[in-house]
Amino acid sequence: MPELPEAETIVRGLRPAIVGLTIAQAEVLKPDILRESKRSFGPKVRGRTIESVDRRAKNVLIRLDGERRIAINLGMTGKLLPFPRPPRGSGRPTHPAVRFRFTDGSILVFDDTRRFGTVECLSDEEWQVREARFGPEPLDPKYAPAALYEALAQSRSPVRSWLLDQRKIAGVGNIYAAEALFLSGIHPLREARAVTPAEATRLHQAIRDVLSDAIDEGGTTIRDYRNAIGGEGGYARLLFVYGRDGEACRRCGSDIERVVLSNRSAFFCPLCQPSPA
DNA sequence: AGTGTATCCTGCAGGC
DNA sequence: TGCCTGCAGGATACAC
Asked: Which nucleotides of B are covered by protein (CB under 7 A)?
């Protein structure tokens, strides 16, 4: 999916386009995207005005008047495309799942090829229950290296798996986990609790660097990801390891390797990230 | 607690 | 050209 930087890029693009608009109608073209029936979802959003657009972890939150919000998980291929009229090129929806029509005639489409995404309308209370399950936001200034170290020290899972667990740290996905581990010189199979305080400090910095650099680049486009105007992110050209198995490490020239861990690919440089065994 | 496996889907690349 | 397999920025449920 879109990970934290892609969700953040989408939010920044969406905010000026839709804040203040009032929803006239929600058309649900792919009901399996909702976690409730069309008949209950429609009335909850109809007539509501958008107050703000925010992000938590990898989720886009569209806050409405009446103490409720639309929570969107983009899944692997979800896109949010706002437009006054049907756009051309890559910004055009190909697999529209939910179409919001506003009273001023503009439209917001949630488009999702694989339909792993979800769209929900939650009350403040429902959202708070959900929100409490996410770990800290890595870019929160209050998130300290010691907090990362102490949390890692409690887990026996491989550090790459640990980083993908949204309850431990919010918003990190497979691309940025791979990049952050490379930058901090930690092998993806290292046991989380075996990470030293010095390594945890490097990892903490690497996570922040990778995520904020990726936000600056507008995210990473490998295949599907597009921002709110259908554009691609520029971080792909800065990747050190993700998707580069068999290619030369940009630091030492070794062949980048790929292993499967918890059914997901993990990429690393065997020299820059020494094996735990 | 943590891992492997399967599941939800569609599309694309590569091998034959 | 077609058919097959494997792979994909996510998340969750299950058995072990």
From this structure: 1-11
